[in-house]
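Please decode residue identities from the backbone states below.
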């Protein structure tokens, strides 16, 4: 009887261990449930390690900001675990414009400099803004418009975590002005002057 119980426990443990994780097989298709799992025999410790967050992002761009993601596409070990991480670099004058992450909530942890950050609620359009210093943490609920701005004259750095291995990203400015939607339609839906719409499209690469 003892041998039978031992065998049952052993089989249960083996079954549980087999479902402990699902390292992404990145060469396969992506589904709403994520990537398919790598064959366990091909999983290595490297699948659970990401070394890129120690490297500063390139902030020589229009918004003077860079996000270095460790999402499932770069970090296969987070597949199916409901989390991911990234590094945010903001040069002096840098800004991450209004944007949303439709797939997950976000927590921002300031490790250098100072960042003004905030979000807008969807129910009453209430604005929540705070100037964050080194060591401060702020949370941004899933799907809500939010932003980050460098608040000092030095490079600011933050580590950002998400409640999804692939939180998604839509930047409001690019959604409005970096597409081929006719400028007259953008004018109607934003109440902006059509000349300004065309100017912003020219800056952000849109047409129409």
């Amino acid at each position: 009887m003892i041998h039978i119980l031992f065998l049952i426990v052993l089989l249960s443990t083996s079954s549980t261990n087999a479902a402990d994780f699902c390292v992404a097989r990145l060469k396969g298709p992506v589904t709403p449930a994520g990537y398919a799992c790598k064959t366990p025999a091909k999983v290595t410790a490297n699948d659970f390690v990401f070394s890129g967050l120690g490297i500063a992002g390139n902030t020589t761009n229009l918004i003077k900001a860079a996000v270095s993601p460790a999402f499932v596409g770069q970090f296969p070990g987070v597949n199916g675990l409901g989390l991911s991480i990234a590094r945010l670099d903001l040069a002096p004058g840098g800004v991450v414009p209004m944007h949303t992450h439709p797939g997950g909530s976000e927590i921002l942890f300031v490790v250098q400099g100072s960042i003004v950050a905030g979000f807008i609620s969807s129910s009453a359009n209430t604005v929540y803004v705070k100037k964050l210093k080194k060591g401060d943490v702020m949370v941004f609920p899933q799907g809500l418009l939010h932003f980050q701005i460098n608040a000092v004259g030095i490079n600011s750095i933050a580590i950002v975590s998400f409640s999804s291995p692939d939180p998604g990203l839509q930047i409001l400015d690019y959604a409005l002005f970096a597409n081929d939607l006719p400028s007259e339609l953008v004018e109607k839906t934003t109440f902006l002057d059509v000349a300004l719409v065309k100017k912003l499209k020219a800056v952000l690469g849109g047409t129409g």
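Observation: Residues 2-18 form the longest helix (17 residues).
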